[in-house]
Amino acid sequence: QVQLVESGGGLVQAGGSLRLSCAASGRTFSSKAMGWFRQAPGKEREFVTAITWNGGSSYYADSVKGRFTISRDNAKNTVYLQMNSLKLEDTAVYYCTAARSGTSEYAYWGQGTQVTVSS
Predict the structure, then answer these.
(1) Residue burial 39-64, b: 16+ Cβ < 10 Å; e: rest
(2) Could you give the CA distance from residue 100 to residue 86 in angstroms, rounded to a whole number?
(3) pLDDT, tens digit, for every residue of 62-114?
(4) DSSP characters over 57-81
(5) Closest Cα to residue 84, out of 23, 14, 35, 21?
């Protein structure tokens, strides 16, 4: 079992930056692909970004490409989401997720952290 705990959310003005962190428990973190999803009020949860187990590849939704960066530190069992040039439409609850080892099936989810972008 993997426990995920997000932190770093908050209130920021449009154009500002935030860095989210997701700390994972367990000894298999380094073998898992990791991702971030988000859910805005009244909308379905959507994919934001993902990173392979070794950090060799990363993927982004078109809406965040060039503004958000995912990274990971396997020694610290932590994945990060650096969010720059934030827009009002980035307001959402952000969820960290981990895939089953060797797959892209996201099976473990954090409780989410609120990001609110104000004008």
Answers:
(1) eeeeeeeebbbbbebeeeebebeeeb
(2) 31
(3) 999 999 999 999 999 999 999 999 999 999 999 999 999 888 899 999 999 99
(4) -EEE-TTTTTTEEEEEETTTTEEEE
(5) 14
Note the pLDDT tens digit of each residue in 33-53.
Answer: 999 999 999 999 999 999 999
Task: State the Rg of the chain over Cα.
Answer: 13
The helix or strand, by DSSP H or E, that contains position 88, with its residue range, turns out to be none
Helix (H, G, I), strand (E, B) or coil at 103: coil
What's phi and psi for 55, nearest 5 deg? 80, 10
- pLDDT at residue 58 greater than cutoff 90: yes
Pairing of β 113-118 and β 10-13: parallel
Closest alpha carbon to 49 in 90, 4, 100: 90
Q: Cα dihedral sign for 48, 18, 5, 76?
A: positive
Alpha-carbon distance values, 103 to 29, 33, 94 (Å) = 13, 8, 22
